Recover the amino acids of this structure.
């Protein structure tokens, strides 16, 4: 669309911005409503040990069941919730829902699974360890059931404070995993100080395995850093047998991806677990 004069373009852009703002406001008030109205839910994507293929945990991924628009993926509302601050309430809901579910599985006598929730930068505050402790206590959930996935870019501000919060979370017995590793502003000097359990290779690197030489170099380097620092390494977004084989030969510990399973509703995740037990044992 061409604009003849500057005035035309300004009018056009402000109309456009307005539309964008209205759309954002619509999503925000809808999400606020969704939180109180039981429209959010979690799907669970299994994580597998690469040796033996046992399910060792799951990533809880939030979805929004919108009355008119159907199931909305997190990419369509989490970034907005992060800019408006609503992510804090969403995160509280996710922690609550994941712990409630894990407590059901714990009571059912399942062997402990690490259930990972994604935590945004704005949730990673001094209040977080206390909230985790209170929620675990309320559900009588053993802390080994809970894991937090944090992106490295969430951790780059005020490193001393971040490490202090991480230490407190560790002291509870909750594990930490560095999500989308390699995509942020990684600083290896910070990495060596983070008291984390797992490095998560981002899907953007897994995708090119084993044909793209750069992706291979990056994946093997992350695995080797993980081994040196005594962290576990998991690859996300594994879709092909060739990717799996490359990761296995490179010494990756765990895998997650559509090759094995999509994120599943709780009941289907339980079915996947039962089948996995039969297959593995
Ligand atoms: P993430 O934490 O990196 O999660 C991995 C995403 O990759 C998920 O998308 C998952 O469904 C998808 N995925 C897994 N395996 C494959 C695969 O083999 N191929 C492909 N193409 N995709 C795969 P999803 O569920 O749409 O979530 C997107 C992002 O939204 C997440 O990225 C995370 O950053 C964010 N997110 C999801 N749930 C939450 C939440 O409860 N809180 C926060 N703060 N963020 C969340
Ligand atoms: Mg994640
Ligand atoms: Mg990830
Ligand atoms: Mg990712």
């Amino acid at each position: 669309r061409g604009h003849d004069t500057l005035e035309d373009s300004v009018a056009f852009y402000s109309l456009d911005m307005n539309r964008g703002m209205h759309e954002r406001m619509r999503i925000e008030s809808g999400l606020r409503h969704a939180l109180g109205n039981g429209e959010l839910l979690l799907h669970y994507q299994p994580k597998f040990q690469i040796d033996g293929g046992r399910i060792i945990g799951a990533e809880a991924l939030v979805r929004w069941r919108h009355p008119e628009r159907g199931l909305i993926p997190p990419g369509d509302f989490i970034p907005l919730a992060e800019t408006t601050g609503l992510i804090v309430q969403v995160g509280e809901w996710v922690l609550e829902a994941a712990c409630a579910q894990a407590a059901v599985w714990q009571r059912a006598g399942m062997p402990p699974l690490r259930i990972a929730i994604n935590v945004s930068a704005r949730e990673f505050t001094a209040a977080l360890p206390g909230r985790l402790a209170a929620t675990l206590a309320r559900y009588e959930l053993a802390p080994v059931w809970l894991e937090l996935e944090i992106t490295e870019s969430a951790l780059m501000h005020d490193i001393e404070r971040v490490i202090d919060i991480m230490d407190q979370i560790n002291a509870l017995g909750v594990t930490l995993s560095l999500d989308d590793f390699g995509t942020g502003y990684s600083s290896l000097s910070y990495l060596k100080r983070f008291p984390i359990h797992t490095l998560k290779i981002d899907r953007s690197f897994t995708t090119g395995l084993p044909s793209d030489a750069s992706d291979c170099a990056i994946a093997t380097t992350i695995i080797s850093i993980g081994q040196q620092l005594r962290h576990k390494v998991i690859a996300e977004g594994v879709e092909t047998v060739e990717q799996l084989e490359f990761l296995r030969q490179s010494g990756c510990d765990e895998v997650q991806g559509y090759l094995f399973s999509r994120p599943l509703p709780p009941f289907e995740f339980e079915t996947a677990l039962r089948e996995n037990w039969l297959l593995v044992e």
Summary: The two ends are 63 Å apart (CA to CA). Residues 179-180, 200, 236 surround magnesium ion (ligand 3) (CB under 6 Å). The longest strand covers residues 55-66.
